[in-house]
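Exercise: predict the structure of this protein bound to adenosine-5-diphosphoribose.
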Amino acid sequence: MDFLPLIKLLHQTKHVTVLTGAGISAESGIPTFRGKNGLWKKYRAEDLATPSAFNRDPKLIWEWYDWRRGLIAPVEPNPGHKVLARWEKIFSDFALITQNIDGLHWKAGSKNIVELHGNIWKMRCTEEETIIENFDSPLKEIPPRCPSCGALLRPHVVWFGESLSPSTIQKAFALSSQCEVMFVIGTSAIVQPAASLPLSAAEAGAKIVEINIDPTPLSPYADFSFKGKAGEILPLIDNELRKKP
Ligand code: APR
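Solution:
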């Protein structure tokens, strides 16, 4: 793989934005959604990740999120996550937008993160809308209840049929349309509005760098496409970047 043209560009770049999806956490052992053994291959999203499913049976939904938290709790960020945490310190203007709710970017040390779809370690009161951080795995109580008003708590994640918070999506589009280079890593680039972010970046003149084991609908628009695992390719790019220009 020839990284040189990209490295040359990155040495002249100040503003980098990165969009990640489930693929960046695959090498940490977390299943993706649509890949082989993906979550949506085994489970019906409409039965487990919609507001109506939650209203129908909050206990079932919380059992499923407790299971997913149990999968995520013991795993560590991989070299892909760690390179992005390092890049936050080397580029003067760096932003990380993630579709992932696993919290591994925080665990890797990234600070400037926009979580489009929420975070599995956060819960929200269905009455007061207050957000509570909770890392218990397994959960002590299913379904968990709000410590202040006793109402049902729900996972602080975005379910199908729900819209993203307007401030979050506004920030994500601003970070996309202001960057010079946008990395798109480990996403099937089909779920909206996230899938539109790279296109708005390209429209604003940014160079698009895609890293994925498979082609995606975004691939034809990418200026640089690296086919392979994020946890292997990001360290290779980073090694080249560390070399003096
Ligand atoms: N390195 C790079 N890419 C990878 C790797 C890897 N090690 N493993 C898998 N991929 C790629 C797959 O080829 C696929 O394109 O990651 C992508 C994962 O796609 P999805 O499973 O569709 O996940 P994502 O794009 O993050 O889904 C978007 O959909 O289900 C909802 O809310 C959920 O945030 C999620 C959203």
